[in-house]
Structure formats: C-alpha cells, structure tokens
Specification:
heterodimer, A: mainly alpha, B: mainly alpha, two-stranded antiparallel ribbon
Chain lengths: 297, 339
C-alpha cells in the first residue's frame, strides 16, 4: 500500500502535472483548429506555422526589450491581425466555391509552405530560446515543479475558460454559433457573416499564437516547431469531433495524459503511434468523433 | 465538386489524348537529344520527374477521380522505395522481380491503411491519411535496422535485361517512361470501364451511388489499394535512380509535393499530373540552383493556382484546345466551360 502511494507521489504525479501543462497548450491549439473548422469548414493546415509565428513574435518583442508579459499580450493581438488579413485576402477567395473543403485545405497548405520558408529566411533554421520569465519552483505533493509550468497551466486554463464563456455565454458568441448553424438565416437577420468568419479565423490564429508564446520558454523556437505539435492538435480535434469545443478540451487533456503516462513505460518514439492508435479506435466506434459540431446540438 | 469535375465531353477527351501523346513524344525527343549530347544530369532529373509523376498519378486517381484527398501518399511511395532497396541489397537485382514484389506488398500495405482510412469521409480521410504517413515515417526514422535517419545507402543497380541496368541514364529513363506510360494507359482505360465510371460517380455524389445499390466502400477501398500499389511501384524505382533511400521519402513534403504537382498540372485529367510533375521538378531544380528557399516560390505558385486556376494547367488548356479545333472545323463555337 505504502509502495503504491509512493509510486503515485514520485512517479505518477510528476508525469500527470507535466502532461497537463503541455495539455493546456495542446488544447489552445486544438481550440483554434476546431473553432475555425466548426464555423468556416476550413481545415487550417497552416495552424502549426501560426504557432511558430507566435513564438517568433515573442522572440522579437523580447529582443527589442519588451517584457515577456507584454509580449504575451501583444502577440495574440498581432496574430489576430495576421489571421484577419489571411481570411480576407486568401480564404475568402475560394470560400464560396463548391469545393470549399478541398480548396481551403490546399490553400492553407500552400500558405504553410510559404510561411515556413519565410520564417527560415527571416530567422535562420537554428533554434532560438527565450528566458523563462518566472524562475524557481513550488512544492506540490512533496515534489518540486517549475513555477513557469504551473503558470502555463493556470494561464492556459483561464484562456480556455474565457473562450468557452465568450462562445457560449455572450451575445457575440451566440452570433458566432448561429452563423455556424445556418449562415443564410444569420445573414438575413442582418449579421455581417463574412466579418464574423474573418474574426473567428483571427481568434483561432490568435489562440495558436498564444500557445506559441506560452511554450516558447519551455521548448526552443525554430521554423518547423509547429509540425509535430500540430499533428497532436489534429488528433485531438479528430477524436473530440471536428468543430466541437468541449471535445477539443476533453480529448486534448486526455491524449496528453495518455502520452505522458505512457512515456513511463514505452519509449517516447512510440508515443505518436500510440496517439494515432487511440484516434483509430475512437473513429471505429464513432466516426464523427466524440462530440458534436459547434452550433449543432 | 464542380471545380475539379472530370470533363465528360468526348471532344475534351480527344484533346487530353492529344496532350498525352505530346507529353510522351516530347519525352522521347528529350531522351534522344540528351543521349546524343551525352548529358547525365538532366536525364537523371527527368527520370526523377517520371518517378514522382507515378506518385502524382496515384494521387490523381484518389483526388481527381474518386474524390478522396490523400495527404499521406508518401507512405506507400516510401514503403516501395525501402522495400526495393532491401530486396536489391539482399536478394535479387532483377528489376522485374523487385517491381513485382513492391507492387504486391504495397497493395497489401494499402489494404491495411485503407481499412483504417476509408472508414472516414471527407476531411477526416485527409487527416487520417496524413497521420498514418506521419506515424510510419517516424517509426522508420527511429528504427535502427532500417538505417534510422540515414536511411539505406549503397543500393546496387537493378538489372533490366542482361547488359541493360538502371545505372545507364538513357536506359533507365526510357524504362521509367515506359512504366509511366503503362500506368497512364491502365488508368485511362480503367476510366472507360464501368468500374472507373463508378469511381467518378462516387466523386460526383457518393450518396446517390449508394442509393442506387452500389457498395461505395468497396469501390473506394479498391481505388485506394490501386493507388497505393502505383505509388509503391513508383517508389521502388527511386533507389535504383539515386542509390539510396532515406526517411524523408515518407515525410509530408513528398505527399505535399505530389498534391502540388497534381493541382498545378490539372486534377482529374491524368495527364495533367505528369505535366505538373515534369514542370515542377524542373522548376525546383532551376530555382534550387539559385536559392535554397525554392519552396517559397513553389508555395506562392501553388496558392496562385488554387485561387485563380483551380483546374490546373491542363484543365485550362484542354478546353481551349477543343475550342480551337472546333473553330478550325467550322462548327459552331461552343463554350465548353464546366463547373
């Protein structure tokens, strides 16, 4: 009995907490993806590059002497502007064709290629680091955890909660949900649906940017940093149900826990195949994912 | 699915055939000139374009004809390349046996992957094929027995006939050209059979095909397996050309490039992807000799094509050619605009 308790305290607990701090960032990424899909039907293949852009924006801001906390505030604003511009100048152009799914996916895929190369040209391929803004560690369950990871967890949860309240408890959120459910009806009620679309895309991109800033002090910053990370986010979105906010949160936390606890027993090399196995199992049972779409039930 | 719809008029199929004949004629002329001036670099590059053309054909079978967007076709391409490298190194150098083995084994891998991926529809299919390829490439990247990140080097030349091997640039180019011509003719023929019509119908309206009493799952799975087999066999030619394989062959970049080749060339036209592959392989090589950031150029080009010419080069050229022909014959000019 005592052994089991010790195992839980010294082996399991650190993994759970580390997993949760990554999990919150994964949820932020997945939220952006799922909101964009739920409302616009767009699979944003450039999401990983937006995440990297967010991290680089923080690197630049900190390099010119702006404190981390301001960078954390300014980067999502900057990324929202980028997202708005991308939606208005690129995605709108193919949005009204019948092949919306395929064309927007291909377009954002092209954008991902371009952005990745732009980042490489601007910053070089070598990884960069930013200083951890909060040093030290705190004691939880008799173990010490870096303060910054705890901060990431708290901050991430707060943002997820804010997005949740925004979508489900505010008037603007109701408009967003209405536009996702029936765009023509919403438009005929006088809502500028195209603007709602662009702003939603901007919100999704801003969330990717925040995830980039939050994780930049933990991981290093390099042009292809989004690639592996976005794969996890995609698995989360598929398992949770494309376009489901609840699904993204639950599946995101669950998958990162599976990943971090399984790494006690198997080599991390196998964690991606494991996640993918979970995804396949869920899809065999429920091909549309665990939860329904935004604005649908 | 209007933007990608396969042109149905017989006139258009004629102009597509004309463009196909032109493609293979240009390739033969190119081979002749390159051999006369004893060039090796461009012959090798053109052979590579042919090999990636095979991959593009397999993508077009799924994307342009069946209406499935495969984001992980490099999985089968890389599998074929690794299988061929291992067979060439350890068992036999006969190209026929290697290709046969790769054709069958990649079809088998395609069956397994298809059973997983075909369950899902639309964007789910796209993302699952993407995930599958990503996971397998990671496993290969971390498997020491397969050379891990270095891949397998020192793959011997394959023997086509006694005295003819894949080490001779002209011989191997012509072999790859013949292979592609064979695959192209096979797919072109298949599109005229009831089976091919079914695939086109699934792309146009899957529900209606199901209501008519056909099992769409079976058709989609068989198309997926066929595409996997084509991709795998094309991949098998790669180590014969370059003498090595690496995990990069399975990475998303290869799948992505194949899709770019298909879209830029012309989705659903079958010959378009071959033009796309030839043009873009050339472009990558030319731009790549000036700057390491050739992906930027390709990416911008691709985005322009997606926004302004979603039917691709051949998708626009073919109707134009038709109108020319009809004008020449003095018939009433017909606006053959689809979608």
């Amino acid at each position: 009995m005592a052994e089991a308790l010790e195992w839980m305290q010294y082996v399991l607990a650190p993994q759970v907490i580390n997993g949760a701090s990554i999990g919150v960032a994964v949820v932020l990424m997945a939220l952006g993806l799922t909101i964009i899909f739920g409302l616009l039907d767009v699979i944003n293949m450039a999401h990983g590059e937006f995440y990297a852009m967010g991290a680089y924006a923080a690197v630049i801001l900190i390099a010119i002497g702006i404190p981390f906390w301001w960078a954390l505030l300014l980067t999502p604003l900057f990324m929202a502007v980028v997202g708005y511009a991308v939606e208005r100048t690129l995605i709108q152009r193919v949005f009204h064709s019948k092949d919306r799914h395929t064309l927007t996916l291909l377009l954002t895929f092209g954008l991902a290629i371009v952005l990745e190369d732009v980042l490489k040209i601007a910053f070089g391929a070598n990884p960069m680091r930013i200083e951890t803004p909060i040093g030290g560690s705190i004691e939880v369950f008799g173990l010490f955890f870096p303060n910054y990871r705890m901060f990431v967890m708290g901050m991430g949860s707060a943002i997820v909660a804010a997005v949740w309240i925004f979508i489900f408890r505010t008037r603007v959120g109701a408009i967003v949900r209405a536009a996702a459910f029936d765009r023509h009806m919403t438009a005929s009620l006088g809502v500028p649906v195209n603007k709602v679309y662009a702003l939603t895309f901007a919100l999704g991109v801003a969330l990717a940017g925040i995830a980039g800033v939050l994780l930049a002090p933990i991981y290093s910053v390099f042009p292809t940093m989004g690639r592996d990370f976005v794969l996890i986010a995609f698995s989360v979105v598929i398992i949770g149900g494309m376009g489901s906010i609840k699904g993204a949160v639950i599946a995101g936390l669950l998958l990162t826990q599976i990943q971090s606890i399984s790494s006690l027993y198997i080599s991390p090399v196998w964690s991606d195949p494991l996640l993918f196995g979970c995804m396949v199992l869920v899809l065999m049972w429920r091909p549309q994912g665990l939860f329904g779409r935004l604005g649908h039930g | 699915m209007g933007e990608f719809s396969r042109p149905a008029s017989s006139k258009q199929i004629n102009s597509l055939r004309l463009l196909a004949v032109l493609f293979f004629a240009i390739s033969c002329v190119f081979a002749f000139i390159a051999t006369v001036v004893e060039d090796v670099f461009f012959l090798r590059l053109a052979t590579e374009a042919m090999i990636f053309g095979g991959l593009a054909l397999s993508v077009d079978l799924l994307l342009g004809i069946t209406g499935l967007l495969p984001l992980g076709q490099a999985l089968f391409f890389g599998f074929g390349a690794y299988a061929a490298a291992l067979i060439l190194k350890n068992w036999t150098v006969s190209i026929w046996l290697v290709l046969l083995a790769c054709m069958l084994s990649s079809a088998l891998v395609g069956l397994v992957a298809g059973l997983i991926a075909i369950r899902s529809k639309g964007v789910y299919f796209a993302l699952i094929s993407f995930g599958l390829a990503q996971v397998v490439s990671k496993i290969v990247f971390n498997t020491v027995e397969l050379g891990a990140s270095d891949g397998i080097i020192g793959v011997p030349n394959a023997q086509i006939l006694p005295g003819l091997s894949s080490g001779q640039p002209t011989v191997f180019f012509l072999f790859a050209l013949m292979f592609i011509a064979l695959v192209y003719s096979l797919l072109n023929y298949l599109m005229k059979t009831p089976y091919g019509r079914q695939l086109i119908a699934i792309k146009a309206n899957e529900h209606r095909v199901a209501f008519l009493g056909f099992n769409t799952w079976r058709f989609k799975l068989s198309a997926f397996v066929l595409a996997a087999s084509i991709a795998g066999t094309s991949g098998a030619l790669y180590p014969m050309l370059r003498g090595f394989v690496s995990p990069e062959l399975m990475f998303f970049q290869v799948s992505g490039n194949a899709i770019i080749n298909v879209i830029v060339g012309g989705t659903g036209t079958l010959i378009g992807p071959l033009y796309g592959s030839a043009l873009l392989t050339g472009l990558r090589s030319v731009v790549g000799s000036f700057t390491p950031h050739h992906q930027l150029v390709i990416g911008v080009l691709f985005m322009i094509v997606v926004i302004l010419f979603p039917r691709g080069i051949i998708g626009y050229l073919a109707p134009m050619l038709d109108r020319r022909c009809q004008k020449g014959q003095g018939t009433v000019q017909q606006e053959a605009r689809g979608g």
